[in-house]
Amino acid sequence: MADAGDLRMNDQPRGDGKTARHGKKPQKQVPLGGANKKKRRRIALGSVLASLGVICLAIAIVGNTMLDRFGSSLDNATFIENDVLPPDYSGYQEDEVVDYAPEDLSTLEVRGNNDYVTNYLLIGVDSRDGERARSDTNIIMSINDKTKTIKLVSILRDTWVYNPGLGGYDRINSAYLYAGFDGLLSTVESNFCLDIDQAVTVDFHGFEAAIDALGGIDVEVDEDGVSWIPKENPGNPDSFAKDFYGNQIREPIGYEAGTYHLAGFQALAFCRVRYAYVDSDISRQRNQRRVISGLIETAVKNPGKIFNVLDAVLGDVTLYRVSKGEILSYVDNATKYLGYKIEMDYEFLYQNMTTAGGAMVLTLPNHEQQLMDLHEYLYGE
Predict the structure, then answer these.
(1) Rg of the chain in Å (alpha carbons)
(2) Do 321 and 197 form a contact (C-beta atoms < 8 A)?
């Protein structure tokens, strides 16, 4: 086991066949996990940036005079109540984190929606080839009517978690690949004590289309990341202004930190690049949340373009147990959300660990206390 210290952030069931929606995390680790795979050079994007948090709330702020037209645009989205594909764990490869002793979370209350808090899971998937995909971006979006905030909390894709469908441990980004919405949501509940029943996915095409439909967005870009963002479109979402080794291979948008106006392909590059950072995916998730904020702010300032965004992106959005009526209610109560503050400052404390197969994963030290802090942050208690 290698300990790199703490990092601030950021059709066949297996075994007995159970794929329960709500699983419990055991006190003792079961030596399972799917981390011993070749690292994909293709870093799946944070395309959740054009999903519910932008599509619904930005439209809501624009105003209810557009309610009828918005309702018609929603017909392009996919609404589902149950997963279409059955669980499939055939791609699972066994692995374990040596000497890892997970904490007992059974004494913690599982929190869900209440009179003033509504939680969604925003899921970014890279499904360019139509295959089942990992959820490489997982963001908890919590709307709190008491504190008048919309809070976004990232769960890093390499987080080592108990998977109820497997009956053991794996990276969190595999849960959606194996068992879709139910598999991922039950994994979130077991490891974060949050009962989230509603979720949204969007793929990379929807993300780029949303940015371009707005004419680009203004985003604060840090010094480490700016030289990785290409000035001209390379025509390949896997290509940056630098290569894997950090060599400058094409002209970047700049070399200094600052606010830049990003086109869709540039915002995508900023959301995806992680080799620029010592803490890798932690900074990548921070960048994604910056783009979420920039996208919402730009949409609110350009209400005339908002339906261009809808037309461009809703065909790539799937809403799980989120009704059309629920979204329209946000629009109908537009003024309610006008003063809500978007907060993105909560980050988990992670610890770098190595599996028996040599893969790097992230665990949550002081897991119980971190979840208590998370619940206080989301519920304001």
Answers:
(1) 20
(2) yes
Token couple for 246: 């950090």
3-state DSSP assignment of residue 368: helix
| Among the listed residues 374, 297, 343, 369, the one whose alpha carbon sits nearest the alpha carbon of residue 151 | 343
For 49-92, what is each residue's pLDDT tens digit? Answer: 333 344 444 444 444 445 666 667 778 888 999 988 889 998 88
Backbone angles phi, psi at 377, to 5 degrees: -65, -45
Three-class DSSP category at 71:
helix
The side-by-side arrangement of strands in the sheet containing 360-363 is 6-8, 349-354, 360-363
Residue 262 in any domain: the answer is: no
Cα atoms in the Cβ-side hemisphere of radius 13 Å centred on 240: 26
Distance CA 311, CA 245 (A): 38
- Low pLDDT (below 50) residues in the chain: 1-5, 8-65
- Mean pLDDT, the chain, as a whole number? 78
Backbone angles phi and psi of 325, in degrees to 5: -65, -35
Residue 75, exposed/middle/buried by CB under 10 A (0-12, 13-18, 19+)?
A: exposed
Number of structural domains the chain divides into? 1
Give the CATH number, domain containing residue 85: 3.30.420.590
pTM of the predicted model as reported, rounded to 2 decimal places = 0.77
Q: Range of 115's domain?
A: 11-211+313-379
